[in-house]
Amino acid sequence: MLFKRVLTVAVLLPLFLAALFLLSSRDWAFVLLLMLGAGAYEWARLSGLRQSAAALFTLLVIACAAAWVVIDIRHPLLPAAQGLWLVSSVFWLLVAPIWLWCGWQLRSVPLRLVTGFVLLFPTWLALAYLQREPWLLLALMGVVWVADCAAYFAGHRWGRNKLAPAISPGKTWEGVGGAVLGVAVYHAAVWHWGLAATMSGAGAALSLLVLVMVPMGILGDLFESWVKRQAGVKDSGTLLPGHGGVLDRIDALTSTLPLAALTVSCLLGWTA
Description:
By secondary structure, the protein is mainly α. It contains 9 helices and 2 strands, in the order ααααααββααα. A hairpin with a 3-residue loop joins strand 1 and strand 2.
């Protein structure tokens, strides 16, 4: 499994980096529709929709995103984007923790689809928006990747105490400690001495954002695990060998990047 994980990353990461740094903002946003569509389809299937209905939901989400790109070219939609990021942030900061604590089993398919839209669309929008500063986006995503890898290896090596056995039996407090330590090292070695120092005096606020992103990423991982448990599946899909589906790879991004985009848009004043 580890070999498949590494091989998948070795193939996809260079393609991702090439697109991130070489494509225009418009082309980047359209390429991201592949991720958005795959995630929407997987979410629809987890919500109990059949293939035809799941495909219809996927097309609807993609159409909304494509229309956004076309309109935004002539009429910047930053206030609307900030509104969506705020809705997403409120969901992750308030609704999702209560949802997991109470063990809600959302059986209404329409509400599940609305939840999926709140998870996926603002994340796609955050990725599209933050690409105007590729190194910043890469650094933000690096927080999630480092936390995930550190938690995986620390949990595998030292994991004893379960974090949330009713939701995800494989996650441990030792893994959480590994994630915190890994991000701390990453922050000191890469973030603080590199990128944050160039962010027009916003380094301290961005460092605080990194601190918040660690528990938020864990929350996103747990939430997707809860949804999969309710659906009775181990992975959201099979598109990525060794990793499962697209949702399995972007779960922590859905809970962190909208908040990051909202913070960056307020701090740095990017308006177009």
